[in-house]
Design brief:
- The protein is mainly alpha-helical.
- It has two domains: about 1-30, no CATH class; about 40-80, no CATH class.
- The protein has four helices and no strands.
- The longest helix is centred in the middle third of the chain and has 20 residues, at about 40-55.
- The mean pLDDT is about 80.
Length: about 90
């Protein structure tokens, strides 16, 4: 990625809402012209199949959204400065 593109993305992240960023990402991906690396596509499908099998067999450990959110927020305490009264569920 060029420095110019990096700066543009950084400005966009500050100026756009989450929904607008998601729409932009979707648009950029859609405009790749359908050029999908077949090896990457196959590897992705293999990984998805592996994860589904692990879930179905009980091998994979799962967690609720509340637990995942709590763990991730603990890693970013600065992100919630001033929001100590919020209850994480």
């Amino acid at each position: 990625m060029t420095p110019e593109v990096s700066k543009l993305l950084e400005r966009g992240e500050r100026a756009l809402s989450v929904e607008e960023l998601a729409a932009l990402a979707d648009s950029l991906i859609s405009n790749l012209g359908g050029k999908v690396d077949e090896g990457v596509q196959a590897a992705g499908e293999t990984e998805i199949g592996k994860r589904i099998a692990e879930l179905n067999s009980g091998k994979a450990k799962t967690a609720s959204w509340g637990e995942l959110r709590r763990r991730n927020l603990e890693k970013l305490p600065h992100a919630w400065t001033g929001y100590s009264s919020l209850k994480i569920t």
